[in-house]
């Protein structure tokens, strides 16, 4: 306890000093300040009896940051204190350093990374791109490509470079990448991973791969939870605080992340967390047709909110992300996933085992008739007290967790509300929990039209130019760059990555990963039935595809028709509509058996592939065929 108490105390004092030394540069809305002297941290008594050496270390650091601030020259104060704040963020010296398992898969060693041909050298010297990053090792592999660590010779910083292969193989994949790089450019926050740069492709109209340079993180929360069985209450608090702070910012931009899970939270040994993987994120524009917005919903099941397990509503709220954060927090506390459902019905079962069956008022609000009937017909369950499920946890943490995991989305707090929960007394400070402006519709106008490969290539290229201001100027002036093959470091990277990939996982029985979230091209959707029959556990994939009909709330006769094929155990002759099977059929998660999925490492890996508008018709036909 002592070390974490020190952290909280240190951070609190830091805030207090900051308020007194830099108050002129801060918004002076005292009503907004949740963190004040009367708001005694629950750790105070521990601090008094705590570990002195930790206290003095934190004190010293907090002190030195204050002294530095005091020494700022007049006139420079505002700017430097803001910069300093950004850099320092939190003093985490009181928290025990995390174990972060080594992620090195292959070190290049004698690899020919240094070799530069004459022309290449010339290009690189002139443009400075290629010599800038020296690739070190492969640190991860996702469905879109390899991630390597590298040194940025301009800054000396270590960075992560993600090579995304064959970006334009499917328009839907390319659109996902466009969305992700755009969102990460627009969402700048200390708790969100930062894109530092994107390499300029060698040709505007012909490039296939892109190289995205991120700030380098040491691990992810999934690994941290697995490797650290001695996390303290202060770790839990600081982790949750950062996640909610990042989420507050994301939600005020009107963005829903939609796939929050421990693997999508990057982590450093110093306890810093950053939200990543915005590939499934969407901007919510009030006038956007909700059916289109949600038909491609595919978040990993274990972290999926109940309303998404049964297509409860046609409009969803940011509360879906709050639910995921609740699941992640519970996983931190116990070291195990909270709701490791095997399919959506099992998922709902696990949720109701803990939370009890929802009250009738909550069920009554559910728009989808099948989901409503399914929930009403469930065996009534009483909630399990959280103190029993999480016996060693801080009662304040559990009170907040219960709010995050409210079955009814309207009962969950917003991220901002959660940050003002008493659990964060002494740590939270609204001045350090920024909001942002809603993202402009103009940035995402491409979501409203059907894009061709060339359209999306142009849009990605335009997005890359944001990291190449001079080229952007030329582009905006209308200079035709089509035939201008300008030099870039990409060719060299291509070779380096090819080499690394060749050696990646050597000795392991790895098969190449395939894109998980890929939207389905129509022809794949309509693959022959027998291709799917031997896929056990894929009931969900075969049947959960009636998104369109669910969202449009089909007439009763249609529902009855689809229920004829239901074989759910509760399906008596007179109650055909609310079996588990029919619920699965109406879930707003859609997929096809035809998509390749990653070799399964654990059940949570079974993310359901994304389905786009284009694919819905095909899926609907396929489902109909399956049940014919
Ligand atoms: N900035 C970073 N610093 C360190 N590691 C990273 C960084 N970004 C990604 N990684 C790691 O690289 C791996 C693959 O990254 P990522 O999940 O972004 O790829 P992806 O192709 O989008 O994967 P997915 O299949 O989950 O969609 C992950 O293990 C991740 O932890």
Number of H- or I-type helical stretches: 27
Strand order of the largest sheet: 1-2-3-5-4
The hetero molecules present are: adenosine-5'-triphosphate
The whole-number mean of residue pLDDT values reads 69
What is the percent of helical residues?
40-55%
Task: Give the strand tally.
Answer: 10
Characterize the biggest β-sheet.
Answer: 5 strands, antiparallel
Globular, elongated, flat, extended or rod-shaped: what is the shape? globular
Whole-angstrom Rg? 26 Å
Percentage beta strand: 5-15%
Catalytic activity: L-seryl-[protein] + ATP = O-phospho-L-seryl-[protein] + ADP + H(+); L-threonyl-[protein] + ATP = O-phospho-L-threonyl-[protein] + ADP + H(+)
Region (Disordered): 1-86, 503-580
Biased composition (Polar residues): 546-577
Binding site for ATP: 163
Question: What characteristics describe this protein?
Answer:
alpha+beta, MAP kinase activity, MAPK, disordered C terminus, 5-stranded antiparallel beta sheet, 628 residues, 27 helices, globular, single chain, binds adenosine-5'-triphosphate, Prot_kinase_dom
Model description:
GO terms for molecular function: ATP binding; MAP kinase activity. ATP binds at residue 163. Residues 546-577 have a biased composition (Polar residues). The chain is an alpha+beta fold and 628 residues long. The protein contains 27 helices and ten strands. A five-stranded antiparallel beta sheet has the order 1-2-3-5-4, with helices on both faces. A three-stranded antiparallel beta sheet has the order 6-8-9. Strands 7-10 form a two-stranded antiparallel sheet. The N and C termini lie far apart (62 Å). The structure holds adenosine-5'-triphosphate.
């Amino acid at each position: 306890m002592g070390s974490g108490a020190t952290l909280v105390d240190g951070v609190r004092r830091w805030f207090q000093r900051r308020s007194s030394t830099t108050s002129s540069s801060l918004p002076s809305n005292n009503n907004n300040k949740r963190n004040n002297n009367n708001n005694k941290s629950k750790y105070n008594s521990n601090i008094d009896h705590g570990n002195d050496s930790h206290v003095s270390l934190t004190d010293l650091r907090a002190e030195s940051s204050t002294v530095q601030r005091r020494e700022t020259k007049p006139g420079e104060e505002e700017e430097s204190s803001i910069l300093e704040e950004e850099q320092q963020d939190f003093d985490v010296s009181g928290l025990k350093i995390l174990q972060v398992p080594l992620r090195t898969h292959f070190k290049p060693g004698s690899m020919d990374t240094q070799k530069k041909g004459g022309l290449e050298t010339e290009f690189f010297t002139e443009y400075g791109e290629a010599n800038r990053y020296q690739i070190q090792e492969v640190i991860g592999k996702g469905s879109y490509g390899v991630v390597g660590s590298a040194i940025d010779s301009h800054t000396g910083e270590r960075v992560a470079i993600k090579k995304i292969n064959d970006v334009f193989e499917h328009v839907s994949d390319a659109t996902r990448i466009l969305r992700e790089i755009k969102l990460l450019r627009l969402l700048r926050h200390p708790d969100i991973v930062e894109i530092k740069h994107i390499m300029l492709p060698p040709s505007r109209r012909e490039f296939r791969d892109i190289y995205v340079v991120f700030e380098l993180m040491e691990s992810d929360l999934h690994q941290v939870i697995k490797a650290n069985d001695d996390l303290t209450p202060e770790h839990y608090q600081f982790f949750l605080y950062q996640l909610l702070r990042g989420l507050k910012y994301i939600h005020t931009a009107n963005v829903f992340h939609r796939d929050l899970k421990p693997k999508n939270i990057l982590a450093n040994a110093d306890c810093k967390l950053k939200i990543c993987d915005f590939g499934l994120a969407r901007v919510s524009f009030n006038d956007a047709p909700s059916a289109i917005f949600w038909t491609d919903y595919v978040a990993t099941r274990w972290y999926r909110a109940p309303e998404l397990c049964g297509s409860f509503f046609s409009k969803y709220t940011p509360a879906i992300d709050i639910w995921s954060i609740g699941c992640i927090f519970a996983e931190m506390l116990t070291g195990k996933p909270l709701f490791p459902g095997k399919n959506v019905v099992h998922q709902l079962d696990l949720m109701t085992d803990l939370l009890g069956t929802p009250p009738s008022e909550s069920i009554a609000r559910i728009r989808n008739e099948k989901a409503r009937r399914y929930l009403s017909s469930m065996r009534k369950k009483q909630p399990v007290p959280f103190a029993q499920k999480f016996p060693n946890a801080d009662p304040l943490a559990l009170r907040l967790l219960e709010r995050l995991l409210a079955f009814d989305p309207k009962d969950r707090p917003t991220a901002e509300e959660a940050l003002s929960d008493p659990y964060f007394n002494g740590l939270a400070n609204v001045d350090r929990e920024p909001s942002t402006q809603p993202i402009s519709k103009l940035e995402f106008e491409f979501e409203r039209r059907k894009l061709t490969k060339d359209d999306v290539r142009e849009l990605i290229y335009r997005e890359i130019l944001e990291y190449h201001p001079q080229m952007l100027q030329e582009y905006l002036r209308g200079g035709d760059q089509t035939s201008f093959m300008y030099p870039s470091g990409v060719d060299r990277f291509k070779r380096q990555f090819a080499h690394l990939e060749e050696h990646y996982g050597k000795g392991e029985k790895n098969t190449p990963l395939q894109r998980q979230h890929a939207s389905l091209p129509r022809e794949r959707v309509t693959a022959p039935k027998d291709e799917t029959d031997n896929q056990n556990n894929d009931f969900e994939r075969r049947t959960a595809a009636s998104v369109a009909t669910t969202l449009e709330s089909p007439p009763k006769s249609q529902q009855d028709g689809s229920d004829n094929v239901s074989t759910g155990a509760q399906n008596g002759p007179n109650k055909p509509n609310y079996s588990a099977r029919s619920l699965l059929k109406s879930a707003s998660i859609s997929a096809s058996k035809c998509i390749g999925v990653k070799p399964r490492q654990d059940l949570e890996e079974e993310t359901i592939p994304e389905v786009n508008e284009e694919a819905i018709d095909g899926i609907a036909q396929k489902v109909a065929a399956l049940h014919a």
